[in-house]
Amino acid sequence: MSTASSAAASQLDPSSGSMDPLFHVIQVLPFSFLRPPRLRLKLPTFTLPSAMTVYSLILLTYFMVVSGIVYDVIVEPPGIGSTQDRFTGAVRPVVFLPGRVNGQYIIEGLSSGFMFMLGGIGIVLLDLAMDKNRAKSVKVSYASAGVAFVVISYVMSMLFIRIKIPAYLR
């Protein structure tokens, strides 16, 4: 049985007895007069990034995704809009694209993304405030900053939605 399995393995191995003689010549002939060099290559050593580096990259990616960077690249909206006042005729800048939920100016997306990121950082600070190995003053600082960030983020996000859609939740 071992001779049958070795015969089957030699048939599957392309270097041991290929039926094509040209393949055999190409494989054997160059090494009959050429000698491959002895290379002393070192494998590169990669160190893992620190936890803060990974967190920063994930936070930056989160900011870019919720800010609508993909939308901004594809649609290429203006950075800021403008509207003309009915009474005075003066042109005023507009940051939020009114009435369209699925459209945005660039500044609108960046400011909304910043508010979402601020709320996420607030939740992380609240989690850090629950650590038992920290001093009480540090825990209080983390907790108060976390609550403030979450409240500011929520209030500003609701304000942004009410500016964008005036009749929302009324």
Task: Please summarize what this structure is.
The chain is mainly alpha-helical and 170 residues long. It has 7 helices and 2 strands; from the N terminus they run αααααββαα.
What does this molecule look like?
The N and C termini lie far apart (82 Å). Helices cover 59% and strands 5% of the residues. The mean pLDDT is 87. It has 170 residues and is mainly alpha-helical. The chain is flat and about 90 Å long. Helix 4 runs antiparallel to helix 6 (106-129). The chain has seven helices and two strands; from the N terminus they run H-H-H-H-H-E-E-H-H. It has a two-stranded antiparallel ribbon.
Show the helix and strand layout.
Layout: H1 2-12, H2 21-28, H3 30-33, H4 51-67, H5 69-75, E1 81-84, E2 91-94, H6 106-129, H7 136-164
Antiparallel strand pairs: 1-2
Helix pairs in contact: 4-6, 6-7
Helix content: 55-70%
Q: Widest sheet: strand order? A: 1-2
Contiguous uncertain segments of 5+ residues: none
Structural class: mainly alpha
Instruction: Please write the string of helix (H) and strand (E) elements.
Output: HHHHHEEHH
Distance between the termini: 82 Å
Gyration radius (Cα, Å) is 32 Å
Number of β-strand runs: 2
Task: List the total number of helices.
Answer: 7
Overall residue-averaged pLDDT value: 87
Major β-sheet annotation? 2 strands, antiparallel
General form: flat
Please supply descriptive tags for the structure shown above:
170 residues, mainly alpha, two-stranded antiparallel ribbon, 7 helices, 2 strands, 59% helix, 5% strand, flat
